[in-house]
């Protein structure tokens, strides 16, 4: 059974624009599913809908066998820990007034009564935070710093550490390397690949960068103007029957 099944998900805005149009896909355990498309095609809207940050107009979102599209906040909370998000801009994702250790402990404090951790052992706050920082290859000394004291790559690693801290089943990665320099991009992609294997995570990897999506993913979805126009296994990227828009993206690959 797939971990996440999305069926004909549709999201429109008041001005009449349909950002996501009858989109269907599934995500399997341990898989990295890539979603590629140009800016404004609806990728980030889809991500916010999956996390129930935004309400959908129609369709269904089934997480671990449970439809979650109509659950209220109280009923949704047990499912939120299973699907976490890493945003494009780590500076905006981290509270500038909190030390790194306080940002990292926050998800545990919200969900601790639901957690049976397998990979991270909570014997003390300090030991737990040290494990999280080590998992994303950051030194323990960063725990007492504020976000502005870290580089962009370090801040993104902190947001990844926070996302994996409660051992979710799925990470929704929304342009996770877009704000980083080329060297940091490569290092973060390598880290994400390692974490997926070590923690048995499943990824929805969203990007406008077809090269990064191709590197990371087993299957690839292509989105254009709110529609899903192509989907294929990674090895079939250069197949002759690819959608014309996919071929456009390949031409600038």
In short:
Helix content is 35%, strand content 24%. It has 253 residues and is of the alpha/beta class.
Q: How would you describe what is shown here?
A:
The chain folds into two domains: 1-82 and 170-253, Rossmann fold (3-Layer(aba) Sandwich), CATH 3.40.50.300; 92-167, no CATH class. The protein contains nine helices and ten strands. It has helices at 43-50, 73-80, 90-93, 100-111, 125-135, 152-164, 182-199, 210-216, 244-251, and strands at residues 4-12, 18-27, 32-36, 58-63, 66-67, 83-86, 170-174, 202-207, 219-224, 227-233. The strands form two sheets. It has a six-stranded mixed beta sheet, with helices on both faces. Strand 1 (4-12) and strand 2 form a beta hairpin. Helix 4 packs parallel to helix 6. The relative contact order is 0.18. The mean pLDDT is 94.
Provide key terms for this protein.
253 residues; alpha/beta; Rossmann fold; four-stranded antiparallel β-sheet; 10 strands; 35% helix; ATP-binding; nucleotide-binding; ATP binding
């Amino acid at each position: 059974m797939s971990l996440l099944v999305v069926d004909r998900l549709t999201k429109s805005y008041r001005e009449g624009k349909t950002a996501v149009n009858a989109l269907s896909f599934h995500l399997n355990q341990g898989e990295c599913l890539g979603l590629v498309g140009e800016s404004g095609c609806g990728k980030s809207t889809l991500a916010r809908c999956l996390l129930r940050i935004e309400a959908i107009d129609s369709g269904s979102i089934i997480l671990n066998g449970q439809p979650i599209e109509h659950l209220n906040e109280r009923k949704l909370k047990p499912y939120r820990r299973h699907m976490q998000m890493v945003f494009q801009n780590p500076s905006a994702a981290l509270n500038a007034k909190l030390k790194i250790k306080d940002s990292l402990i926050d998800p545990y404090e919200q969900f601790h009564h639901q957690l049976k951790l397998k990979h991270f052992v909570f014997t003390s706050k300090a030991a737990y935070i040290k494990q999280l920082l080590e998992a994303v290859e950051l030194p323990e000394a960063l725990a007492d710093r504020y976000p502005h004291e870290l580089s962009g790559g370090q801040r993104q690693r902190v947001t990844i550490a926070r996302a994996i801290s409660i051992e979710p089943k799925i990470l929704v990665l929304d342009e996770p390397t877009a704000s980083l320099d080329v060297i940091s991009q490569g290092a973060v992609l390598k880290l994400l690949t390692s974490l997926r294997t070590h923690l048995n995570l499943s990824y929805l990897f969203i990007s406008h960068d077809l090269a990064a999506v191709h590197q990371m993913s087993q299957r690839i979805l292509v989105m254009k103007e709110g529609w899903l126009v192509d989907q294929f296994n990674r090895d079939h990227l250069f197949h002759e029957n690819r959608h014309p828009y996919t071929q456009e993206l390949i031409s600038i690959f």
